[in-house]
C-alpha cells in the first residue's frame, strides 16, 4: 500500500504540573482521539510527540520548517537562527 500526500503530526508541550498529576502513558493516544472527536477524523494526527520545548528563533517564532523536516525523516536544515540549537537535537533523538 502506498501513501500519498501529507499527514498531520503534532508536537505537544505539556505543563509540568499536569505531568506531575497524571500518568504520561497513553497521553499521545488520548490527544489523538480527542482531536478526532473535536475536529474530525481527517484532522487526527498520525503521530503525537510530547516535547519539552519547540525550536524558536531569537524573536520567538516557531521554526515549523525544522519540525516538518524531522517529522518527514529528512535531515534537519540550517539551525543557526535558533535561540537554542540543542532543542533540535533533543527532538530528533526523541523521534528516532
Termini separation comes to: 23 Å
In percent, how much strand structure appears in the residues? 5-15%
Helix vs. strand class: mainly alpha
Largest sheet: 2 strands, parallel
- Average pLDDT, rounded to a whole number, is 86
The total beta strand count reads: 2
Roughly how much helix do the residues carry, as a percent range?
25-40%
Radius of gyration: 15 Å
Number of self-contained structural domains: 2
Global outline: globular
GO biological process, one term: acetyl-CoA biosynthetic process
GO molecular function: acetate-CoA ligase activity
Pfam family, one: AMP-binding_C
InterPro entries: AMP-bd_C, AMP-bd_C_sf
Task: Write up this protein.
This protein has 96 residues and is mainly α. It has 2 domains: 1-50, no CATH class; 54-96, no CATH class. The chain contains 4 helices and 2 strands; from the N terminus they run βααβαα. Strands 1-2 form a two-stranded parallel sheet. Helix 3 runs parallel beside helix 4. It starts with 8 loop residues before the first strand and ends with a helix. Pfam families: AMP-binding_C. One of its GO terms (biological process) is acetyl-CoA biosynthetic process. This is AMP-binding enzyme C-terminal domain-containing protein. One of its GO terms (molecular function) is acetate-CoA ligase activity.
Amino acid at each position: 500500500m502506498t501513501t500519498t500526500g501529507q499527514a498531520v503530526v503534532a508536537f505537544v508541550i505539556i505543563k509540568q504540573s499536569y505531568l506531575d498529576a497524571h500518568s504520561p502513558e497513553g497521553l499521545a493516544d488520548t490527544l489523538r482521539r480527542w482531536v478526532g472527536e473535536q475536529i474530525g477524523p481527517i484532522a487526527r494526527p498520525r503521530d503525537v510527540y510530547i516535547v519539552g520545548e519547540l525550536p524558536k528563533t531569537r524573536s520567538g517564532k516557531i521554526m515549523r520548517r525544522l519540525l516538518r523536516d524531522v517529522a518527514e525523516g529528512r535531515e534537519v536544515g540550517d539551525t543557526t537562527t535558533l535561540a537554542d540549537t540543542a532543542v533540535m537535537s533533543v527532538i530528533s533523538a526523541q523521534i528516532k
